[in-house]
């Protein structure tokens, strides 16, 4: 019980009203399961402005504000779930709010948030974020110091947060060390959309959402349908 109490204290500290960034950014509270239990094309734009948080074993806090995401659906030929459940993508077909992590190009991990209903096979790829806290740790992992480049791409974001195979299936709603806080959702006028990056099939779907004018958005070029 004492151990659980320490966990509660750590989570409460991260749910404090504000943390310093370029201005002041509200952390807010954890996003509930119901937030994720909706279609990925609905959840994706609403994830912008939310804050991804990781608490490391030494107590270091990593936090970054999401500025770019992409939606993927089971009936989408670009989605890992398109051909049904496999050992690799099984997390996508589980409960919403879990982290689905995949390995790509033989060298990179990418993190996604499972959305929709249990068994649907939909998710939102976390493409880029604005670092808020723990920049020294992120820079050491990324072997560079420019804040703009620390999380500007799905593989970069995963590397900065230490997200790998072990994090596949983490419950972002309940896990004490890796979760999403409500932050400050963006108004519709601040959100732009385009086709997704690096997609060869389903290239006409405008399911990439990003913050207009953000210097932290990834440099990837959207597909042309």
Question: How would you describe this structure in keywords?
Answer:
6 helices, two-stranded antiparallel sheet, disordered N terminus, 3-methyladenine DNA Glycosylase, Chain A, globular, 10 strands, 225 residues, eight-stranded antiparallel β-sheet, alpha+beta
Write a brief caption for the model.
By secondary structure, the protein is an alpha+beta fold.
Structure overview:
The chain is α+β, with helices and mostly antiparallel strands and 225 residues long. It has a domain at 33-47 and 66-175 and 192-211: 3-methyladenine DNA Glycosylase, Chain A, CATH 3.10.300. The protein has helices at residues 2-14, 33-36, 40-47, 135-142, 147-150, 154-160, and strands spanning 18-20, 24-26, 51-55, 61-72, 99-104, 108-115, 122-133, 178-181, 191-194, 208-211. The strands form two sheets. Strands 3, 4, 5, 6, 7, 8, 9 and 10 form an eight-stranded antiparallel sheet that branches. A two-stranded antiparallel ribbon has the order 1-2. Strand 6 (108-115) and strand 7 form a beta hairpin. The N and C termini lie far apart (55 Å).
Q: What is the rounded distance between the termini?
A: 55 Å
Structural class by sheet pairing and helices: alpha+beta
CATH topology of the domain at 33-47 and 66-175 and 192-211: 3-methyladenine DNA Glycosylase, Chain A
The geometry reads as globular
* Gyration radius, rounded: 16 Å
- Continuous helix count: 6
CATH architecture of the domain at 33-47 and 66-175 and 192-211, by name, is Roll
Largest sheet: 8 strands, antiparallel
Query: Ranges with pLDDT <50 over ≥5 residues?
Result: 1-23
- Total E-strand runs: 10
Percent range for helical residues?
A: 10-25%
The proportion of strand residues reads 25-35%
Q: What is the average per-residue confidence, as pLDDT, rounded to a whole number?
A: 87
So what's the CATH class of the domain at 33-47 and 66-175 and 192-211? Alpha Beta
Order of helices and strands: HEEHHEEEEEHHHEEE
CATH superfamily assignment of the domain at 33-47 and 66-175 and 192-211?
Answer: Methylpurine-DNA glycosylase (MPG)
């Amino acid at each position: 019980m004492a151990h659980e109490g320490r966990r509660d204290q750590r989570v409460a500290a991260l749910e404090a009203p504000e943390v310093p960034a370029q201005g002041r950014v509200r952390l807010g509270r954890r996003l509930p399961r119901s937030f994720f239990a909706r279609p990925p094309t609905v959840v994706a734009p609403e994830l912008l402005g939310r804050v991804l948080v990781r608490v490391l074993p030494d107590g270091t806090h990593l936090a970054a504000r999401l500025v770019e995401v992409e939606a993927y659906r089971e009936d989408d030929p670009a989605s890992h779930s398109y051909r049904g459940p496999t050992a690799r993508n099984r997390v996508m077909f589980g409960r919403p709010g879990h982290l689905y992590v995949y390995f790509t190009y033989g060298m990179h991990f990418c993190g996604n948030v499972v959305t929709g209903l249990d068994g649907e096979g939909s998710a939102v790829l976390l493409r880029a974020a604005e670092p808020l806290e723990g920049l020294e740790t992120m820079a050491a992992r990324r072997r560079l110091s420019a804040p703009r480049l620390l999380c500007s791409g799905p593989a970069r974001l995963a590397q900065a947060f230490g997200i790998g195979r072990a994090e596949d299936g983490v419950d972002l709603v309940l896990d004490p060390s890796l979760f999403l806080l409500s932050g400050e959702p963006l108004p519709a006028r601040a959100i732009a959309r385009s086709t997704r990056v690096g997609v060869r099939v389903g290239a006409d779907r405008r399911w990439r959402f990003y913050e207009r004018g953000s210097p932290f958005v990834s440099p990837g070029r959207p597909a042309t349908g």
